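Q&A log
Question type: sequence-to-structure
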Amino acid sequence: MKAEPLYHISGHKACIYALSGPVGPFRFVSGGGDAVVAGWPADAPDQGTMIARASGQVFALASDAADEVVWAGTMQGMLHRLPVGTSGADRHIQAHQGGIFAILPFGKMLLTGGEDGRLHIWDAESGRLDWTLELAAKSIRAIDYSAARNELALGSSDHCIYLLDAKDFTIRHRIAHAHDNSVFTVRYLPDNPAFLLSGGRDARLKQWRLDGQPDCQQNLPAHLYTINSIAVQPAGRYVATGSRDKTIRIWDTRTLSLLKAIERVRDNGHAHSVNALRWLDDHHLVSASDDRRLILWKIMEEKS
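Response status: OK
Response body:
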């Protein structure tokens, strides 16, 4: 497998922690420690536009393409609604006590998870807080949704993964001691939603079978340090992981065999921690790093 860096994108003045998109004219959106939320267009992916300056470091982003809105969460617990089109005015809400680490648009609702261990359910249009679930003893770090299972998966710094019924938010399963430390990222496999991937501070990539009682099927020492992000290719053939060890690794989704390790020297990769990943299509992956850069990669199978 080959990974070609098409663009090294600068513009942020601090670590970049979050990616989302597409929305409006932008193919993807980034946010980070400089409090800037920036949009990057498809026709000129290295020419960004500042959508807004948030009230603090941006730890979480989500795009609502239908409403042309970007949601940004900060280290101080502020939730910003940032219109990209003509969908109303900006809105700024003190949403959590401590940082916001996960945001998920969910129909007419918006879900946020934060340092206070709470899952908040908001009315996305009005910004009204409808419900709070006191879920975890420590931070909620990640949220993913499976339509096929009508289920939400949440990763927490209490080392647990929570599986919630997406209709009434009741807890279906609590996977205790899912990782040896904080669970930073969770992803359902869209073509096989009976499986969930997770990664965390323990640098291990785990695959969980969810039919019946959740069971760990694979437990891989995938990186040297923390796994910050898991991204599944739209076609479902590959999984990308990003780590504090500065590398991106591409895995076969079916077997979780390692196909490619993208490194700084050999591949002109990142110089510091890789914090967020997002597939733009089946062949293009964007990565965000502590080195203040975004890299747009072309991922290709090598011809035999």
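Response note: The mean pLDDT is 96.
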